[in-house]
Design goal:
single chain; 542 residues; alpha+beta; 5-stranded parallel beta sheet
Length: 542
């Protein structure tokens, strides 16, 4: 890898028809060098896809990421500023300047950061670069959830009863909730991640919930616009992967289930959804495809639904106009390389000419993914920092690891604490879960506390094994506690959890002998980490 010094109409308020018209235009063209406007595992993933297609990759990095793996992985790298994301990865001028300096002819935004920023997409196109993503107006058109619902209705896609809140008087709010039907969710029109969402079961709590949602939405998304949506009891979160070329060919790549969530953030993802019949699968996948076609979509995207297991019906939620974190499970069960497809679509190629799509896609087996975070379930999932003194990822058949870290790398305080995704494929769901659990047990992480114990416990719950779960399961099972922590009766149990959950640090440390330190286990001795109510998480194995 070398540095550049060595190698130099508002869509948010548009109607469904207007959105469809706005989004027909996509930029395509020859691509020889891609600037990856992101970091971590997704930047590594994109760089690998570029390499397969003979495309050069350009990393960007902040001062905190100068030695990061994605910088080492790419063909070139450009510094873009201080550690603060606002002055580096979220700075459109710095990213465009980096693309110009590197001689890139295309930009891939990855996910997060500016991946769903309409202004960034427009600036990239205005600079004469190919934007590897949907047309800018498609991004803007999906920013408003109520506008997206209009698109869904125009496409004949089922939507849950909902109403936009324009009159905030108590009388109007109570009337709106009655029309939608209790229980209701008070939801911000903009943003995501569950921020601001409030469940309301009784009219007596509605006004306070609306006030809370407005306050949170304004702080998080700079907009206090809200809407009401009927709450679906025991809902399953099912999303459809869609892909479309610039020639009007729109397809689905089947569905994923992401129902196991903590605070509306996905913890476990799998494909396909275990409870859908063939008829239900065909219906929800066609709804996703039809929605993408209605909006004139180009590239890879995800249409999200709630599935009601009682009524056996699905309802449109929203569309994510980017690659999803959990895209690998779809890749493993279909054989489609979604990132490579993004690149080929951006070059103007047709889906029908790509081997993965030429004869149609089919499902084969089952895949399950978990996200490994540098966070501590015992302290309310607070992000953790540190250096990976020892880092061993599983290396087994049918197991995939997407990560931006290697041994010796550091996890800092500036960015998302996800350090890896571990994904396993099996001929059926049970086999996939067994392989994933084995892979987690084989993972060795010293120096940084992670959520590995939590993931192992969740995957081994009988409800998960039986696919008897919904979006509220983790909260119902554990409440505010981290999985496993409520089961600890003494310090010995605690040490067992630490050791077993982090890939056997006791055994691996003993095998390493004096290599850890002059005193044997030294800093990695879990017994020395016990203090006070149990342990200190900035010390010991992790």
């Amino acid at each position: 890898m070398t540095s550049p010094t060595q190698r130099p109409t508002d869509p948010a308020t548009a109607s469904a028809a207007e959105i469809s018209t706005l989004t027909k235009t996509a930029t395509t063209g020859p691509i020889t060098r891609v600037l990856i406007a992101n970091r971590g595992e997704i930047a590594v993933r994109i760089a690998r896809a570029c390499s397969v297609l003979g495309i050069e990759s350009v990393a960007v990095f902040s001062e905190a990421d100068a030695e990061a793996r994605h910088v080492r992985q790419c063909d070139m790298a450009v510094p873009i500023g201080p550690a603060a994301a606002a002055e580096s990865y979220l700075s459109i001028p710095r990213l465009l300047a980096a693309a110009q300096l590197a001689g890139a002819d295309a930009v891939h935004p990855g996910y997060g950061f500016l991946s769903e920023n309409m202004a960034f997409a427009r600036e990239v196109a205005a600079a004469g670069l190919v934007w590897i993503g949907p047309p800018p107006a498609a991004i803007g058109g999906m920013e408003s959830k109520t506008a997206a619902k209009l698109v869904a209705e125009a496409a004949g896609v089922p939507v849950a009863p909902a109403q936009r809140l324009t009159d905030m008087s108590e009388t109007a709010l109570l009337a709106a909730a009655e029309r939608v039907g209790y229980p209701v969710l008070v939801k911000p029109e903009h943003g995501g991640g569950g921020k601001g969402m409030q469940r309301v079961d009784l009219p007596s709590t509605l006004i306070a919930a609306v006030a809370t949602a407005r306050r949170v939405a304004q702080a998080a998304f700079n907009s206090d616009a809200l809407f009401l949506e009927r709450y679906v009891e025991r809902a399953r979160h099912v999303e459809v992967q869609v892909i479309a070329d610039a020639h009007g060919d729109v397809r689905h790549v089947f569905e994923r289930e992401c129902s196991l969530q903590r605070r509306h953030q996905k913890v476990v993802e799998e494909a396909p959804c275990a409870i859908l019949t063939d008829v239900e699968r065909a219906a929800i996948c066609e709804s996703g495809r039809a929605f993408a076609a209605q909006v004139g979509y180009v590239g890879a995207g995800t249409v999200e639904f709630l599935f009601d297991p009682v009524r056996r019906a699905h309802y449109f939620l929203e569309m994510n106009t980017r690659l999803q974190v959990e895209h690998p499970v779809s890749e493993l069960v279909t054989g489609v390389d979604l990132v490579m497809a993004q690149l080929r679509i951006a070059r103007g190629e047709r889906l029908s000419t790509m081997p993965a799509f030429a004869l149609g896609t089919t499902l084969r087996g089952h895949a399950v993914e978990v996200r490994v975070y540098a966070e501590d379930p015992a302290t309310g999932y607070l992000p953790q920092v540190g250096r990976f003194e020892r880092l061993v990822w599983p290396n087994a058949p049918f197991v995939r690891v997407d990560t931006g870290y290697e041994q010796g790398d550091e996890v800092g305080m500036h960015y998302d604490p996800m350090i890896a995704k571990i994904i396993a494929w099996g001929a059926d769901r049970s086999e996939a879960l067994d392989r994933l659990c084995a892979a987690l047990r084989e993972t060795v992480i010293h120096g940084v506390v992670t959520n590995l114990p939590m993931l192992l416990e969740v995957l081994n719950r009988p409800e998960v094994r039986a696919a008897a779960l919904d979006t509220g399961s983790l909260n119902a099972w554990y409440g505010g506690q981290g999985p496993g922590l409520g089961l600890l009766d003494d310090d010995v149990s605690l040490v067992g959890l630490i050791a077993a959950g982090h890939g056997g640090p006791l055994a691996s440390a003993q095998a390493d002998g004096a290599g850890e330190s002059a005193g044997g286990l030294g800093a990695f001795d879990p017994w020395s980490a016990l203090s006070g109510r149990g342990f200190e998480h900035n010390r010991g194995p992790a």
